[in-house]
Amino acid sequence: MSDNTFDLVVVGGGPGGYTAAIRAAQLGMKTACVEKRGTLGGVCLNIGCIPSKALLQSSELFEEAQHSFAERGISVGSVKLDLKKMMGQKETTVAGLTQGIEFLFKKNKVTYVKGTGVLQGGGRVEVSGEQTQTLKAKNILIATGSEVMPLPNVEIDEKQIVSSTGALDLPKVPKKLVVIGAGVIGLELGTVWRRLGAEVTVVEFLDRILPGTDNEVAKATQRIMKKQGIEFLLGKKVTGAKAAKTGVTLTMEPAKGGDAETLKADVVLVAIGRRPYTEGLGLEDLGVEKDHAGRIVVDKNFKSSVDGVYAVGDVIEGPMLAHKAEDEGVVCVEMLAGQKPHINYDTIPGVIYTWPEVATVGKTEEQLKEAGVEYNVGKVPFMANARARANGFTEGFVKILADKKTDKVLGVHIIGPDAGTIIHECVLAMEFGASSEDIARTCHAHPTLNETVKEAALAVAGRTLNS
Ligand code: FAD
Ligand code: NAI
Protein backbone atom coordinates (compact mmCIF):
# COMPACT_ATOMS: atom_id res chain seq x y z
CA MET A 1 0.00 0.00 0.00
CA SER A 2 1.44 3.38 -0.95
CA ASP A 3 1.71 6.13 1.67
CA ASN A 4 -1.52 7.79 0.54
CA THR A 5 -3.56 4.61 0.16
CA PHE A 6 -5.71 3.53 3.11
CA ASP A 7 -8.31 0.95 4.06
CA LEU A 8 -10.39 3.75 5.59
CA VAL A 9 -10.35 7.53 5.26
CA VAL A 10 -12.51 9.34 7.83
CA VAL A 11 -13.55 12.90 6.96
CA GLY A 12 -14.14 14.83 10.20
CA GLY A 13 -12.30 14.48 13.50
CA GLY A 14 -15.22 14.94 15.95
CA PRO A 15 -16.55 12.29 18.37
CA GLY A 16 -18.00 10.22 15.50
CA GLY A 17 -14.92 10.47 13.26
CA TYR A 18 -12.02 10.26 15.71
CA THR A 19 -13.57 7.36 17.65
CA ALA A 20 -14.24 5.46 14.42
CA ALA A 21 -10.66 6.09 13.24
CA ILE A 22 -9.15 4.76 16.48
CA ARG A 23 -11.36 1.66 16.50
CA ALA A 24 -10.68 0.98 12.80
CA ALA A 25 -6.92 1.15 13.40
CA GLN A 26 -7.28 -1.20 16.37
CA LEU A 27 -9.06 -3.64 14.04
CA GLY A 28 -6.07 -3.60 11.69
CA MET A 29 -7.27 -1.13 9.06
CA LYS A 30 -4.78 1.38 7.71
CA THR A 31 -6.67 4.55 8.66
CA ALA A 32 -6.45 8.29 8.03
CA CYS A 33 -8.59 11.01 9.59
CA VAL A 34 -8.97 14.34 7.77
CA GLU A 35 -9.85 17.38 9.89
CA LYS A 36 -9.96 21.00 8.79
CA ARG A 37 -10.38 22.75 12.17
CA GLY A 38 -6.71 22.65 13.12
CA THR A 39 -7.50 20.63 16.26
CA LEU A 40 -9.19 17.26 16.73
CA GLY A 41 -12.36 16.66 18.77
CA GLY A 42 -14.93 18.38 16.54
CA VAL A 43 -17.69 20.63 17.85
CA CYS A 44 -17.94 18.64 21.07
CA LEU A 45 -14.44 19.17 22.40
CA ASN A 46 -13.68 22.54 20.80
CA ILE A 47 -16.91 24.57 20.92
CA GLY A 48 -19.58 22.31 22.43
CA CYS A 49 -19.83 19.72 25.20
CA ILE A 50 -16.53 20.41 26.94
CA PRO A 51 -16.22 24.23 27.03
CA SER A 52 -19.90 24.48 27.98
CA LYS A 53 -19.46 22.01 30.83
CA ALA A 54 -16.35 23.84 32.07
CA LEU A 55 -18.36 27.09 32.24
CA LEU A 56 -21.39 25.35 33.76
CA GLN A 57 -19.19 23.94 36.54
CA SER A 58 -17.38 27.24 37.20
CA SER A 59 -20.55 29.29 37.20
CA GLU A 60 -22.25 26.78 39.52
CA LEU A 61 -19.35 27.06 41.97
CA PHE A 62 -19.61 30.86 41.77
CA GLU A 63 -23.33 30.63 42.52
CA GLU A 64 -22.83 28.22 45.42
CA ALA A 65 -20.06 30.31 46.93
CA GLN A 66 -22.35 33.35 46.79
CA HIS A 67 -25.60 31.81 47.93
CA SER A 68 -25.19 28.32 49.45
CA PHE A 69 -21.99 28.36 51.51
CA ALA A 70 -23.32 30.69 54.22
CA GLU A 71 -26.32 28.38 54.85
CA ARG A 72 -23.85 25.64 55.71
CA GLY A 73 -21.81 27.80 58.05
CA ILE A 74 -19.02 28.56 55.59
CA SER A 75 -17.99 32.17 55.35
CA VAL A 76 -15.87 33.22 52.38
CA GLY A 77 -16.23 37.00 52.52
CA SER A 78 -17.16 38.69 49.26
CA VAL A 79 -17.04 36.46 46.20
CA LYS A 80 -15.57 38.02 43.06
CA LEU A 81 -15.64 36.92 39.46
CA ASP A 82 -12.48 36.77 37.35
CA LEU A 83 -14.06 35.99 33.99
CA LYS A 84 -10.73 35.95 32.14
CA LYS A 85 -9.38 33.29 34.47
CA MET A 86 -12.61 31.30 34.22
CA MET A 87 -12.32 31.37 30.42
CA GLY A 88 -8.65 30.38 30.75
CA GLN A 89 -9.57 27.25 32.75
CA LYS A 90 -12.07 26.36 29.99
CA GLU A 91 -9.44 26.84 27.27
CA THR A 92 -6.82 24.80 29.11
CA THR A 93 -9.32 21.95 29.50
CA VAL A 94 -10.18 22.04 25.80
CA ALA A 95 -6.52 22.18 24.70
CA GLY A 96 -5.58 19.25 26.96
CA LEU A 97 -8.37 17.08 25.60
CA THR A 98 -7.90 17.92 21.91
CA GLN A 99 -4.16 17.27 22.18
CA GLY A 100 -5.03 14.04 23.96
CA ILE A 101 -6.73 12.81 20.80
CA GLU A 102 -3.60 13.53 18.77
CA PHE A 103 -1.74 11.35 21.28
CA LEU A 104 -4.39 8.61 20.90
CA PHE A 105 -4.00 8.79 17.11
CA LYS A 106 -0.24 8.27 17.42
CA LYS A 107 -0.71 5.45 19.93
CA ASN A 108 -3.18 3.66 17.64
CA LYS A 109 -1.30 4.52 14.39
CA VAL A 110 -4.04 6.66 12.83
CA THR A 111 -2.69 9.11 10.24
CA TYR A 112 -3.93 12.62 11.06
CA VAL A 113 -4.30 14.70 7.88
CA LYS A 114 -4.88 18.42 8.47
CA GLY A 115 -7.05 20.06 5.81
CA THR A 116 -10.43 20.10 4.09
CA GLY A 117 -11.53 16.85 2.47
CA VAL A 118 -13.53 16.67 -0.75
CA LEU A 119 -14.83 13.36 -2.10
CA GLN A 120 -13.75 12.82 -5.70
CA GLY A 121 -15.33 9.47 -6.52
CA GLY A 122 -13.53 6.18 -7.05
CA GLY A 123 -12.47 6.07 -3.38
CA ARG A 124 -10.47 9.29 -3.61
CA VAL A 125 -10.49 12.17 -1.12
CA GLU A 126 -8.71 15.36 -2.10
CA VAL A 127 -7.38 17.24 0.90
CA SER A 128 -6.50 20.90 0.63
CA GLY A 129 -4.47 22.15 3.54
CA GLU A 130 -0.90 23.35 3.72
CA GLN A 131 -0.46 21.27 0.60
CA THR A 132 -3.00 19.56 -1.62
CA GLN A 133 -2.91 15.79 -1.66
CA THR A 134 -5.15 12.97 -2.76
CA LEU A 135 -5.85 10.05 -0.45
CA LYS A 136 -7.14 6.74 -1.79
CA ALA A 137 -9.31 4.47 0.29
CA LYS A 138 -11.28 1.25 0.08
CA ASN A 139 -13.92 2.90 2.28
CA ILE A 140 -14.70 6.51 3.20
CA LEU A 141 -16.52 7.52 6.38
CA ILE A 142 -18.16 10.96 6.48
CA ALA A 143 -18.37 12.40 10.01
CA THR A 144 -18.58 16.10 9.23
CA GLY A 145 -21.10 16.88 11.97
CA SER A 146 -23.41 19.86 12.15
CA GLU A 147 -23.52 23.65 12.21
CA VAL A 148 -25.72 26.33 13.76
CA MET A 149 -29.16 26.69 12.21
CA PRO A 150 -29.48 30.28 10.93
CA LEU A 151 -32.55 32.40 11.63
CA PRO A 152 -33.78 34.72 8.85
CA ASN A 153 -33.17 38.44 9.56
CA VAL A 154 -30.94 37.63 12.52
CA GLU A 155 -27.33 37.91 11.43
CA ILE A 156 -24.82 36.26 13.76
CA ASP A 157 -21.71 38.45 14.28
CA GLU A 158 -20.44 36.40 17.29
CA LYS A 159 -20.16 39.66 19.27
CA GLN A 160 -23.62 41.08 19.95
CA ILE A 161 -25.64 38.43 18.16
CA VAL A 162 -23.95 35.15 18.96
CA SER A 163 -24.30 31.43 18.36
CA SER A 164 -23.25 28.97 21.07
CA THR A 165 -19.65 29.50 19.91
CA GLY A 166 -19.71 33.22 20.73
CA ALA A 167 -21.71 32.62 23.92
CA LEU A 168 -18.88 30.39 25.18
CA ASP A 169 -16.42 33.23 24.76
CA LEU A 170 -18.06 36.52 25.79
CA PRO A 171 -15.42 38.95 27.06
CA LYS A 172 -17.72 40.37 29.76
CA VAL A 173 -20.98 39.47 31.46
CA PRO A 174 -23.81 41.12 29.49
CA LYS A 175 -26.29 43.12 31.53
CA LYS A 176 -29.16 41.65 29.55
CA LEU A 177 -28.98 38.43 27.52
CA VAL A 178 -31.86 37.29 25.34
CA VAL A 179 -31.78 33.68 24.21
CA ILE A 180 -33.76 32.63 21.16
CA GLY A 181 -34.83 28.99 21.66
CA ALA A 182 -35.64 27.16 24.90
CA GLY A 183 -33.78 24.01 23.86
CA VAL A 184 -30.69 22.40 25.34
CA ILE A 185 -28.18 25.10 24.32
CA GLY A 186 -30.49 27.94 25.33
CA LEU A 187 -31.00 26.54 28.83
CA GLU A 188 -27.39 25.47 29.44
CA LEU A 189 -25.76 28.70 28.25
CA GLY A 190 -28.59 30.88 29.59
CA THR A 191 -27.89 29.27 32.98
CA VAL A 192 -24.15 30.03 32.75
CA TRP A 193 -24.64 33.76 32.13
CA ARG A 194 -27.54 34.09 34.60
CA ARG A 195 -25.29 32.66 37.34
CA LEU A 196 -22.51 35.06 36.37
CA GLY A 197 -24.87 38.03 36.77
CA ALA A 198 -26.76 38.59 33.50
CA GLU A 199 -30.50 39.18 33.32
CA VAL A 200 -31.66 36.35 31.06
CA THR A 201 -34.85 36.10 29.00
CA VAL A 202 -35.54 33.05 26.85
CA VAL A 203 -37.86 33.52 23.87
CA GLU A 204 -39.40 30.29 22.56
CA PHE A 205 -41.59 29.70 19.52
CA LEU A 206 -43.58 26.84 21.08
CA ASP A 207 -45.80 27.12 24.14
CA ARG A 208 -43.43 24.87 26.10
CA ILE A 209 -39.71 24.54 26.70
CA LEU A 210 -37.51 21.55 25.76
CA PRO A 211 -39.65 20.02 23.02
CA GLY A 212 -39.33 16.23 22.93
CA THR A 213 -38.62 16.02 26.67
CA ASP A 214 -41.24 14.43 28.94
CA ASN A 215 -43.80 17.20 29.50
CA GLU A 216 -43.87 16.92 33.29
CA VAL A 217 -40.06 17.17 33.44
CA ALA A 218 -40.06 20.16 31.06
CA LYS A 219 -42.67 21.94 33.21
CA ALA A 220 -40.67 21.28 36.39
CA THR A 221 -37.51 22.55 34.65
CA GLN A 222 -39.24 25.76 33.63
CA ARG A 223 -40.62 26.31 37.15
CA ILE A 224 -37.22 25.75 38.78
CA MET A 225 -35.35 27.93 36.27
CA LYS A 226 -37.89 30.71 36.71
CA LYS A 227 -37.25 30.54 40.45
CA GLN A 228 -33.54 30.88 39.65
CA GLY A 229 -34.29 34.11 37.80
CA ILE A 230 -34.62 33.12 34.12
CA GLU A 231 -37.62 34.69 32.36
CA PHE A 232 -39.47 32.74 29.67
CA LEU A 233 -41.49 34.24 26.82
CA LEU A 234 -43.27 31.28 25.25
CA GLY A 235 -45.29 31.18 22.02
CA LYS A 236 -43.23 33.99 20.46
CA LYS A 237 -41.75 34.00 16.99
CA VAL A 238 -38.61 36.08 16.52
CA THR A 239 -38.81 37.90 13.20
CA GLY A 240 -35.60 39.91 13.25
CA ALA A 241 -32.74 41.42 15.24
CA LYS A 242 -30.78 44.62 14.65
CA ALA A 243 -27.44 45.27 16.32
CA ALA A 244 -26.38 48.84 17.09
CA LYS A 245 -23.82 50.50 19.38
CA THR A 246 -26.51 50.81 22.08
CA GLY A 247 -27.46 47.12 21.95
CA VAL A 248 -29.62 44.71 20.00
CA THR A 249 -33.30 45.21 19.24
CA LEU A 250 -35.22 42.03 18.73
CA THR A 251 -38.59 41.98 16.99
CA MET A 252 -41.05 39.21 17.64
CA GLU A 253 -44.72 38.40 17.28
CA PRO A 254 -47.05 35.86 18.87
CA ALA A 255 -46.49 32.47 17.19
CA LYS A 256 -50.25 32.25 16.53
CA GLY A 257 -50.27 35.71 14.91
CA GLY A 258 -50.79 39.18 16.33
CA ASP A 259 -49.01 42.46 16.93
CA ALA A 260 -45.23 42.73 16.73
CA GLU A 261 -43.25 43.60 19.88
CA THR A 262 -39.63 44.56 20.49
CA LEU A 263 -37.17 43.49 23.14
CA LYS A 264 -33.80 45.11 23.95
CA ALA A 265 -30.66 43.20 24.86
CA ASP A 266 -26.91 43.66 25.12
CA VAL A 267 -26.32 40.21 23.66
CA VAL A 268 -28.64 37.84 21.80
CA LEU A 269 -27.91 34.11 21.64
CA VAL A 270 -29.40 32.26 18.67
CA ALA A 271 -30.02 28.64 19.73
CA ILE A 272 -32.80 27.33 17.51
CA GLY A 273 -31.16 24.03 16.56
CA ARG A 274 -28.36 22.69 14.41
CA ARG A 275 -28.30 21.36 10.85
CA PRO A 276 -26.10 18.70 9.23
CA TYR A 277 -22.88 20.03 7.72
CA THR A 278 -21.94 18.73 4.28
CA GLU A 279 -20.92 21.94 2.51
CA GLY A 280 -18.25 21.54 -0.15
CA LEU A 281 -17.85 17.80 0.40
CA GLY A 282 -18.66 16.95 -3.22
CA LEU A 283 -21.65 14.78 -2.30
CA GLU A 284 -23.89 16.11 -5.09
CA ASP A 285 -21.39 15.19 -7.83
CA LEU A 286 -21.06 11.71 -6.35
CA GLY A 287 -24.84 11.24 -6.05
CA VAL A 288 -24.88 10.67 -2.28
CA GLU A 289 -28.56 10.86 -1.26
CA LYS A 290 -29.70 13.37 1.38
CA ASP A 291 -33.10 13.71 3.04
CA HIS A 292 -35.36 16.79 3.36
CA ALA A 293 -33.29 18.05 6.31
CA GLY A 294 -29.98 17.71 4.45
CA ARG A 295 -28.91 14.59 6.40
CA ILE A 296 -27.02 11.85 4.58
CA VAL A 297 -29.34 8.86 4.13
CA VAL A 298 -27.76 5.62 5.38
CA ASP A 299 -28.86 2.02 5.82
CA LYS A 300 -28.51 0.07 9.08
CA ASN A 301 -24.81 -0.50 8.34
CA PHE A 302 -24.32 3.29 7.94
CA LYS A 303 -23.75 2.86 4.19
CA SER A 304 -24.88 5.79 2.02
CA SER A 305 -26.48 5.43 -1.40
CA VAL A 306 -22.95 5.19 -2.87
CA ASP A 307 -20.88 2.02 -2.40
CA GLY A 308 -17.85 2.49 -0.19
CA VAL A 309 -19.18 5.73 1.35
CA TYR A 310 -20.47 5.62 4.94
CA ALA A 311 -21.68 8.29 7.39
CA VAL A 312 -22.20 8.63 11.17
CA GLY A 313 -22.97 11.25 13.81
CA ASP A 314 -24.76 14.60 13.52
CA VAL A 315 -24.64 14.41 9.72
CA ILE A 316 -27.17 11.51 9.70
CA GLU A 317 -30.59 11.05 11.33
CA GLY A 318 -31.05 10.84 15.09
CA PRO A 319 -30.26 12.85 18.19
CA MET A 320 -27.31 15.23 17.78
CA LEU A 321 -25.31 13.87 20.70
CA ALA A 322 -21.62 13.10 21.06
CA HIS A 323 -22.13 9.63 22.57
CA LYS A 324 -24.55 8.69 19.77
CA ALA A 325 -21.92 9.77 17.19
CA GLU A 326 -19.19 7.79 18.99
CA ASP A 327 -21.24 4.60 19.22
CA GLU A 328 -22.20 4.85 15.54
CA GLY A 329 -18.56 5.33 14.56
CA VAL A 330 -17.50 2.23 16.44
CA VAL A 331 -20.39 0.10 15.17
CA CYS A 332 -19.80 1.23 11.56
CA VAL A 333 -16.13 0.23 11.45
CA GLU A 334 -16.70 -3.01 13.37
CA MET A 335 -19.23 -3.94 10.69
CA LEU A 336 -16.66 -3.07 8.01
CA ALA A 337 -14.29 -5.45 9.80
CA GLY A 338 -16.87 -8.23 9.55
CA GLN A 339 -18.02 -8.12 13.18
CA LYS A 340 -21.66 -8.08 14.30
CA PRO A 341 -21.99 -5.15 16.71
CA HIS A 342 -25.29 -3.45 17.57
CA ILE A 343 -26.57 -0.06 18.61
CA ASN A 344 -29.80 0.31 20.60
CA TYR A 345 -31.42 3.63 19.73
CA ASP A 346 -34.04 3.07 22.46
CA THR A 347 -31.45 3.42 25.20
CA ILE A 348 -29.47 6.51 24.20
CA PRO A 349 -29.53 8.84 27.21
CA GLY A 350 -29.93 12.59 26.94
CA VAL A 351 -28.67 14.93 29.64
CA ILE A 352 -29.13 18.68 30.11
CA TYR A 353 -26.40 19.96 32.40
CA THR A 354 -28.32 22.72 34.16
CA TRP A 355 -28.76 22.62 37.93
CA PRO A 356 -30.64 20.57 38.73
CA GLU A 357 -29.76 18.36 35.77
CA VAL A 358 -32.31 16.77 33.47
CA ALA A 359 -31.66 13.23 32.29
CA THR A 360 -33.83 11.01 30.20
CA VAL A 361 -33.80 7.65 28.45
CA GLY A 362 -36.44 5.79 26.45
CA LYS A 363 -40.01 6.82 25.79
CA THR A 364 -41.81 9.83 27.30
CA GLU A 365 -45.37 9.59 28.63
CA GLU A 366 -46.58 11.52 25.60
CA GLN A 367 -44.91 9.04 23.21
CA LEU A 368 -46.42 6.05 25.03
CA LYS A 369 -49.89 7.61 24.95
CA GLU A 370 -49.57 8.34 21.26
CA ALA A 371 -48.47 4.75 20.57
CA GLY A 372 -51.41 3.43 22.63
CA VAL A 373 -49.09 1.56 25.03
CA GLU A 374 -50.52 0.94 28.50
CA TYR A 375 -48.06 1.78 31.25
CA ASN A 376 -47.61 2.29 34.98
CA VAL A 377 -45.85 5.32 36.47
CA GLY A 378 -43.59 5.37 39.52
CA LYS A 379 -42.63 8.89 40.55
CA VAL A 380 -40.69 9.88 43.66
CA PRO A 381 -39.34 13.32 44.66
CA PHE A 382 -35.73 13.83 45.78
CA MET A 383 -37.20 15.50 48.86
CA ALA A 384 -37.77 11.94 50.15
CA ASN A 385 -34.09 11.04 49.71
CA ALA A 386 -31.85 11.32 52.78
CA ARG A 387 -28.67 12.08 50.81
CA ALA A 388 -30.36 14.84 48.80
CA ARG A 389 -31.48 16.42 52.07
CA ALA A 390 -28.02 16.11 53.61
CA ASN A 391 -26.52 17.66 50.46
CA GLY A 392 -29.10 20.45 50.58
CA PHE A 393 -30.40 19.89 47.00
CA THR A 394 -33.86 18.35 47.04
CA GLU A 395 -35.59 19.69 43.93
CA GLY A 396 -36.86 17.34 41.28
CA PHE A 397 -37.96 13.73 40.95
CA VAL A 398 -37.38 10.36 39.30
CA LYS A 399 -40.14 9.06 37.08
CA ILE A 400 -40.14 5.49 35.75
CA LEU A 401 -42.54 4.34 33.05
CA ALA A 402 -43.07 0.56 32.86
CA ASP A 403 -45.24 -1.57 30.60
CA LYS A 404 -48.55 -2.34 32.35
CA LYS A 405 -48.55 -6.02 31.34
CA THR A 406 -44.87 -7.02 31.38
CA ASP A 407 -43.45 -4.41 33.81
CA LYS A 408 -40.56 -3.83 31.35
CA VAL A 409 -39.03 -0.37 31.84
CA LEU A 410 -39.90 1.78 28.81
CA GLY A 411 -38.58 5.16 29.91
CA VAL A 412 -36.94 6.98 32.80
CA HIS A 413 -37.06 10.76 33.26
CA ILE A 414 -35.16 12.51 36.00
CA ILE A 415 -34.81 16.10 37.06
CA GLY A 416 -32.61 16.47 40.07
CA PRO A 417 -29.11 16.71 41.50
CA ASP A 418 -26.61 14.72 39.41
CA ALA A 419 -29.41 13.31 37.26
CA GLY A 420 -26.91 12.83 34.40
CA THR A 421 -24.92 10.36 36.49
CA ILE A 422 -27.90 8.68 38.16
CA ILE A 423 -29.59 7.89 34.83
CA HIS A 424 -26.92 5.38 33.85
CA GLU A 425 -28.19 2.58 36.08
CA CYS A 426 -31.51 2.98 34.25
CA VAL A 427 -29.80 2.97 30.83
CA LEU A 428 -28.03 -0.26 31.71
CA ALA A 429 -31.21 -1.78 33.15
CA MET A 430 -33.09 -0.96 29.94
CA GLU A 431 -30.24 -2.29 27.79
CA PHE A 432 -30.69 -5.62 29.58
CA GLY A 433 -34.49 -5.46 29.23
CA ALA A 434 -35.10 -5.04 32.98
CA SER A 435 -38.50 -4.76 34.64
CA SER A 436 -39.18 -2.12 37.28
CA GLU A 437 -39.21 -4.98 39.81
CA ASP A 438 -35.63 -5.87 38.77
CA ILE A 439 -34.56 -2.32 39.71
CA ALA A 440 -36.66 -2.36 42.90
CA ARG A 441 -35.00 -5.61 44.03
CA THR A 442 -31.47 -4.42 43.26
CA CYS A 443 -29.67 -3.44 46.46
CA HIS A 444 -28.82 0.30 46.39
CA ALA A 445 -26.20 1.74 48.74
CA HIS A 446 -27.43 4.07 51.47
CA PRO A 447 -27.32 7.04 51.55
CA THR A 448 -27.12 7.71 47.80
CA LEU A 449 -29.15 9.78 45.38
CA ASN A 450 -29.67 6.58 43.36
CA GLU A 451 -31.95 5.27 46.09
CA THR A 452 -34.60 7.53 44.53
CA VAL A 453 -34.42 5.31 41.42
CA LYS A 454 -35.10 2.24 43.56
CA GLU A 455 -37.93 4.05 45.36
CA ALA A 456 -39.47 5.13 42.01
CA ALA A 457 -39.25 1.49 40.83
CA LEU A 458 -41.09 0.45 44.01
CA ALA A 459 -43.61 3.21 43.30
CA VAL A 460 -44.46 1.58 39.94
CA ALA A 461 -46.04 -1.26 41.96
CA GLY A 462 -47.44 1.15 44.56
CA ARG A 463 -45.22 -0.13 47.37
CA THR A 464 -42.84 2.69 48.32
CA LEU A 465 -41.02 2.43 51.65
CA ASN A 466 -39.61 5.91 52.17
CA SER A 467 -41.99 8.27 50.42
P1 FAD B 1 -18.66 17.21 14.96
O1 FAD B 1 -18.32 17.17 16.37
O2 FAD B 1 -19.43 18.37 14.42
O3 FAD B 1 -17.30 17.07 14.14
C1 FAD B 1 -17.23 17.18 12.76
C2 FAD B 1 -15.86 17.66 12.38
O4 FAD B 1 -15.73 17.54 10.97
C3 FAD B 1 -15.60 19.13 12.70
O5 FAD B 1 -14.47 19.27 13.52
C4 FAD B 1 -15.38 19.79 11.34
O6 FAD B 1 -14.37 20.78 11.36
C5 FAD B 1 -14.93 18.61 10.49
N1 FAD B 1 -15.21 18.77 9.05
C6 FAD B 1 -16.38 19.12 8.47
N2 FAD B 1 -16.25 19.11 7.13
C7 FAD B 1 -14.97 18.73 6.87
C8 FAD B 1 -14.24 18.53 5.67
N3 FAD B 1 -14.81 18.67 4.46
N4 FAD B 1 -12.94 18.14 5.79
C9 FAD B 1 -12.35 17.99 7.00
N5 FAD B 1 -13.00 18.16 8.15
C10 FAD B 1 -14.29 18.52 8.09
N6 FAD B 1 -23.55 16.53 22.91
C11 FAD B 1 -23.54 15.74 24.00
O7 FAD B 1 -23.68 14.53 23.88
N7 FAD B 1 -23.33 16.26 25.25
C12 FAD B 1 -23.17 17.58 25.45
O8 FAD B 1 -22.98 18.01 26.59
C13 FAD B 1 -23.20 18.44 24.33
N8 FAD B 1 -23.01 19.77 24.47
C14 FAD B 1 -23.02 20.57 23.38
C15 FAD B 1 -22.87 21.94 23.56
C16 FAD B 1 -22.88 22.79 22.47
C17 FAD B 1 -22.71 24.27 22.69
C18 FAD B 1 -23.03 22.25 21.17
C19 FAD B 1 -23.02 23.15 19.97
C20 FAD B 1 -23.19 20.90 20.97
C21 FAD B 1 -23.20 20.04 22.07
N9 FAD B 1 -23.37 18.67 21.94
C22 FAD B 1 -23.39 17.87 23.05
C23 FAD B 1 -23.55 18.04 20.62
C24 FAD B 1 -22.22 17.41 20.14
O9 FAD B 1 -21.24 18.41 20.12
C25 FAD B 1 -22.39 16.78 18.78
O10 FAD B 1 -23.46 15.87 18.80
C26 FAD B 1 -21.13 16.03 18.37
O11 FAD B 1 -20.02 16.89 18.34
C27 FAD B 1 -21.31 15.39 16.99
O12 FAD B 1 -20.14 14.73 16.63
P2 FAD B 1 -19.76 14.49 15.10
O13 FAD B 1 -18.50 13.70 15.12
O14 FAD B 1 -20.92 13.94 14.36
O15 FAD B 1 -19.50 15.93 14.49
P1 NAI C 1 -32.85 22.41 20.24
O1 NAI C 1 -33.44 21.71 19.09
O2 NAI C 1 -32.56 21.68 21.48
O3 NAI C 1 -33.79 23.64 20.66
C1 NAI C 1 -34.12 24.67 19.78
C2 NAI C 1 -35.34 25.41 20.33
O4 NAI C 1 -35.53 26.58 19.55
C3 NAI C 1 -36.62 24.61 20.26
O5 NAI C 1 -37.28 24.67 21.50
C4 NAI C 1 -37.41 25.31 19.15
O6 NAI C 1 -38.80 25.21 19.33
C5 NAI C 1 -36.91 26.72 19.30
N1 NAI C 1 -37.06 27.56 18.11
C6 NAI C 1 -36.88 27.20 16.81
N2 NAI C 1 -37.08 28.26 16.01
C7 NAI C 1 -37.38 29.33 16.80
C8 NAI C 1 -37.68 30.70 16.57
N3 NAI C 1 -37.70 31.21 15.34
N4 NAI C 1 -37.94 31.50 17.63
C9 NAI C 1 -37.93 31.01 18.89
N5 NAI C 1 -37.65 29.70 19.16
C10 NAI C 1 -37.37 28.88 18.14
O7 NAI C 1 -31.53 23.12 19.65
P2 NAI C 1 -30.28 23.75 20.36
O8 NAI C 1 -30.59 24.13 21.76
O9 NAI C 1 -29.80 24.79 19.42
O10 NAI C 1 -29.25 22.55 20.39
C11 NAI C 1 -28.82 21.92 19.16
C12 NAI C 1 -28.40 20.52 19.40
O11 NAI C 1 -27.21 20.46 20.15
C13 NAI C 1 -29.45 19.74 20.15
O12 NAI C 1 -30.11 18.93 19.24
C14 NAI C 1 -28.70 18.92 21.13
O13 NAI C 1 -28.82 17.57 20.81
C15 NAI C 1 -27.24 19.34 21.02
N6 NAI C 1 -26.78 19.74 22.35
C16 NAI C 1 -26.74 18.80 23.34
C17 NAI C 1 -26.37 19.14 24.61
C18 NAI C 1 -26.39 18.09 25.66
O14 NAI C 1 -26.46 16.92 25.34
N7 NAI C 1 -26.29 18.46 26.93
C19 NAI C 1 -25.98 20.50 24.96
C20 NAI C 1 -26.09 21.41 23.86
C21 NAI C 1 -26.45 21.02 22.60
Describe, in plain words, how this protein is organized in 3D.
The protein has 467 residues and is an alpha/beta fold. Helices cover 33% and strands 25% of the residues. The protein has helices at 15-26, 42-47, 49-67, 83-108, 164-167, 184-195, 215-227, 283-286, 322-336, 365-371, 386-391, 419-431, 436-440, 451-460; strands at 5-11, 31-35, 111-114, 116-121, 124-128, 132-142, 146-148, 161-162, 176-180, 199-203, 231-233, 236-244, 247-254, 261-265, 267-270, 274-276, 309-311, 350-352, 357-362, 375-381, 397-403, 409-416. A hairpin with a 2-residue loop joins strand 4 (116-121) and strand 5. Helix 1 (15-26) packs parallel to helix 9 and helix 3 packs antiparallel against helix 4 (83-108). The longest helix is centred in the N-terminal third of the chain and has 26 residues, at 83-108. The structure holds flavin-adenine dinucleotide (FAD) and 1,4-dihydronicotinamide adenine dinucleotide. Flavin-adenine dinucleotide is lined by residues 11-17, 34-37, 42-44, 48-49, 52, 116-117, 143-146, 164, 185, 277, 281, 313-315, 320-323, 325.
